[in-house]
Amino acid sequence: GLQACLFDLDGVLVDTAKYHYLAWKQLANSLGFDFTELQNEELKGISRVESLKKILTWGGLDFPQERQDELASLKNSWYVEMISEMKVDEVLPGSFELLEELRTNQIKIALGSASKNAQLILDNTGLTPYFDAIVDGNVVSKSKPDPEVFLKGAEMLHISPSGCVVFEDASAGVEAALRATMKAIGIGSPKELSKAHLVVEDLTKIQLKAIQNLF
Ligand code: G16
Ligand code: MG
């Protein structure tokens, strides 16, 4: 049965994608090109270095690794400035209610995010106290769809993958959950997340009963 829930951060609990987009856009503009919000969709769930590589390709540019590292940390400094202002009201609807319900029912809770800034976001939005384990971009070496981020989470909770459910908004994240042999609940469009066991619009649309029914 259900023993633990693992949450992606961006796109599931908070909407930090808009800040990533603004910061990457600022970087692209400073290099003399632009990219669309549709292209930005491809960056969701992808690590910082991989995102930069994609963006440079869109701009028809290539730089030595050293310069790429500089550009990535420049983007990150702008991004960190934006998320430093985040408050509790930026937590997506249904998040606190679901986390409370899980806690009341002794279901373990972990974070499985690609972001190296996850702790700052959790702290600023009041989410930190809900988490029994935090796995973020500082501790994983392989990006989603590799299952490492979720397998590490289950391991830290001392729970077998078969008792875990993952909440994900990115198809690479759903794939990572399936490769970890966990249940996957997609947050967003059923078309893009068709591999998930269940897809809901947002966390207001899911209750403990429905999660337990996946087992
Ligand atoms: C998030 C975002 C990605 C971002 C990645 C790394 O992942 O969806 O767009 O590139 O983290 O973020 P940072 O530059 O802060 O390390 P997730 O896994 O929480 O959806
Ligand atoms: Mg996400």
Automatic annotation (TrEMBL):
Keywords (alphabetical) are: Isomerase
Q: GO terms for molecular function, please?
A: beta-phosphoglucomutase activity
Pfam families assigned: Hydrolase
What does the record give as EC number?
Answer: 5.4.2.6
Say which domain of life the source belongs to. Bacteria
Keyword hit for Isomerase: yes
Spell out the family assignment given in the record's similarity comment: Belongs to the HAD-like hydrolase superfamily. CbbY/CbbZ/Gph/YieH family.
Provide the protein name.
Beta-phosphoglucomutase
Native source species: Sphingobacterium hotanense
Which gene specifies this protein's sequence? pgmB
